[in-house]
Specification:
heterodimer; A: 484 residues; alpha+beta; 5-stranded mixed beta sheet; two-stranded antiparallel sheet; globular; B: 221 residues; mainly alpha; Fumarate Reductase Cytochrome B subunit; 70% helix; 1% strand
């Protein structure tokens, strides 16, 4: 057992209202720069939808993530020899059109236009070529709220039965906020020939060393979530840095901090680094359980002893024990990994959404069985859809989580209205009274310090002079290209 | 005069620059050590340009270097008429392939609006030098036959005289002008190498071949 700590985010999809505040705060802090205009380290997608970049989930095209080859894992794209041979032209790399051509508006024209019969307008121009764009072709949330669209939503690879979105009786919509998952088995790190990408041992944050990155571009396609971006100006890869300058000081990430719906939880997980590869080798349907098995119980004295041996401080162990992430992922088993079948062991977890909390039309009497909350079988969102997104196709995993969410809603609704509580309800869902109360608290009224339990790293006490010029983002020095 | 410039002044200036500036750049500004890929912005023409260029020019560059390093071996190896003919044909084909590639890369920079923002004077300089070098190379290959053989008897002893600091330009002084231009351009390319994106060829990623797939960095370990 090799105990390590990882800082992890959980998203409660039931509460996401798709306001993009997270994306904006991230953009303002980290990617408001030349070469990074098109990058959204945090983005919010409408599901069903094609997402950003378009159809990022299509690994037949981008060849991201890992596949099982006999008893070993290998990168889906290519091995090391072909990596050398494809250095000049990387065949799977997404192109700018897969994201969108970044644009701004010529506001100067509003005041500076020549006198004419028509009102001047602020015309769109490309932030790359500087040329006027007659018709904007895409944006970071181009299919926002178009969950019934035949052009976008119907191309969602998770949506097996396209008929669902054709009718008002059965269509559904949810939001999916995404950051870099800071995986336990990151394909981007493995794909880099320069070894510029690395995972930090202390907290598991995955970074790109800008001094080492030579711009070979294999990481951009190896990441199955398309969360490593190519900066067209500096010629280097960049990605979400989990706001490490904030997190190291005990503050939570900008995206989580600014979240209007308070859907995000940040905390520490302890995991067994020796068990990661075996977990990634499991069959698709067993992957969620394998994820949970890799995560260790922070209250187990043996785990704590080995953690201390590995240099994890008491402060971190306390944070791990109080971690809302541990509660949601392992203890109550409601938070699930996004596309575990990519086999990178992503360390961002999602509580599946009941949204819309409606049954399909015509099942109103069933709906009423549970008060206003529909039973699991009548939910609009197809279990298969969520299973394709969050459990490698395993329906039982999704049903278990949704049952708990429904039971808590019904239980708390009854309590608020002074109705008699159904004693069977919680037990059927695998919860007890204390668990229901804890989850209810986390989902609703938990404050900042309950949702985010982030131990500071006290780097100032740990040879700070050795880490000068470390960085995972942007370029602080002048690159001296074109004198700008 | 021209001979002194091309065969004495230029090579020593180029050597001095590449030997002094390259380590300085490596130590002082590794951030710019990149080929500045533009595949993200334009990939269709790039595919037909960059692959022919690299796969054509790398074996040819290697042939030049090996001929310089082991002239004795190659004199014997190319002594046979059939081997010489086959070698010349293969190298000429690769040269034409590379020339085709670099021409496409040049035209691509001219034609793509997206690329204007990432194209600087050093990019033009490098592309023109490389196109000129590949062009004169295949001209020499075609009109001055059996170059792989006479290269070993003229340019190679001359280059050895340069690196041993006893320049003997009589080995190459009477060769045709196109050869002199080819040599001058070669020295220019070496001279601009540390100042341009050409430095990317001095970094070959091989460590990752033996490394485990995942890389961890610890502050404390």
């Amino acid at each position: 057992m090799d105990v390590r700590a990882q800082i992890v985010m959980v998203f409660n999809l039931d509460k996401c209202i798709g306001c993009h505040t997270c994306s904006i705060s991230c953009k303002n802090i980290w990617t408001d720069r030349k070469g990074a205009e098109y990058m959204w380290w945090n983005n919010v997608e409408t599901k069903p939808g094609v997402g950003y970049p378009r159809q990022w989930e299509d690994q037949e095209r981008f060849k991201g993530g890992w596949v099982v080859d006999g008893k070993k894992l290998k990168l889906k794209a290519m091995g090391k020899g072909p990596t050398l041979a494809n250095m000049f032209f990387q065949p799977n790399m997404p192109k700018i059109e897969d994201y969108y051509e970044p644009f701004d508006f010529d506001y100067g024209n509003l005041a500076g236009a020549k006198e004419s019969k028509d009102q001047p307008v602020a015309e769109a121009f490309s932030q790359i070529s500087g040329k006027k764009i007659e018709e904007i072709q895409g944006g970071p949330n181009w299919d926002d709220d178009l969950s019934g669209s035949q052009v976008y939503a119907a191309k969602d690879l998770n949506l097996k039965d396209k008929k669902v979105i054709e009718s008002y009786d059965s269509m559904f919509m949810q939001y999916l906020p995404r950051i870099c998952n800071h995986c336990l088995n990151p394909a981007c790190v493995a794909s880099c020939p320069s070894r510029a990408l690395y995972k930090r041992g202390e907290d598991g944050i995955v970074l790109v060393d800008q001094e080492v990155c030579k711009g070979w571009r294999f990481c951009t396609s190896a990441c199955p979530y398309k969360k490593v971006y190519f900066n067209w100006s500096t010629g280097k890869a960049e990605k979400c840095i989990f706001c490490y300058p904030r997190v190291e000081g005990g503050q939570c990430n900008a995206c989580a901090h600014s979240c209007v719906g308070r859907i995000r939880y940040v905390g520490v997980l302890l995991y067994d680094a020796d068990a990661v590869e075996a977990a990634a080798l499991k069959g698709d349907a067993e992957l969620v359980e394998a994820h949970r098995d890799v995560i260790l119980d922070p209250r187990d004295p043996e785990v704590c002893r080995q953690a201390k041996e590995n240099g994890i401080s008491d402060q971190w162990l306390d944070a791990a024990a109080a971690s809302p992430v541990y509660a949601l992922v392992k203890e109550f088993r409601v938070a699930l990994p996004l596309h575990p079948e990519f086999r990178t062991l992503p360390m961002a977890y999602y509580i599946p959404s009941l949204s819309p909390v409606l049954s399909t039309w015509g099942d109103t009497h069933k709906l009423l069985e549970h008060g206003m909350i529909p039973a699991l079988e009548t939910l609009r969102v197809p279990i298969g859809y969520l299973a394709s997104l969050l459990s490698g196709g395993n329906h039982a995993v999704i049903e278990e989580a949704l049952k708990k969410l429904i039971a808590i809603r019904v239980r708390m609704r009854a309590e608020n209205l002074g109705l008699p509580a159904d004693p069977e309800l919680l037990a059927d869902a695998g919860l007890d009274e204390a668990a229901a109360k804890r989850l209810y608290r986390l989902f609703t009224i938990a404050g900042y310090n309950e949702r985010n339990v982030i131990p500071p790293q006290q780097r100032e006490e740990n040879d700070p002079e050795k880490r000068r010029q470390e960085g995972g983002f942007g370029i602080l020095k002048k690159t001296r290209r074109g004198g700008k | 005069m021209l001979n002194d410039l091309i065969f004495i002044a230029l090579p020593y200036a180029a050597l001095a620059l590449v030997l002094l500036v390259t380590p300085y750049r490596f130590l002082s500004n590794r951030l710019t050590w990149s080929a500045y890929s533009t595949q993200f912005l334009e990939r269709k023409v790039l595919y037909w340009g960059i692959n022919p260029w690299h796969y054509g020019i790398l074996p040819i560059l290697l042939a030049h270097v090996l001929g310089f390093a082991f002239p004795g071996f190659f004199k014997g190896f190319l002594g046979n008429q059939q081997t010489l003919f086959a070698t010349e044909s293969v190298l000429f084909g690769l040269g034409a392939f590379a020339f085709f590639g670099v021409l496409l890369l040049l035209l691509r920079r001219v034609n793509s609006g997206m690329l204007k923002r990432v194209t600087f004077s050093s990019d033009w300089l490098v592309l023109y030098l490389l196109a000129f070098q590949a062009g004169t190379g295949i001209y020499i290959g075609y009109f001055m036959r059996w170059g792989s053989q006479w290269y070993l008897h003229t340019a190679v002893p001359y280059l050895w005289s340069i690196v041993s600091f006893r320049p003997q330009i009589e080995y190459v002084a009477d060769l045709p002008l196109v050869f002199k231009l080819h040599a001058a351009c070669a020295f220019l390319i070496v001279a601009v190498l540390p100042f341009t994106k050409l430095v990317h060829m001095l970094y070959l990623p091989v460590d990752f071949l033996k490394d485990p797939p995942l890389l961890y960095r610890w502050r404390s370990k």
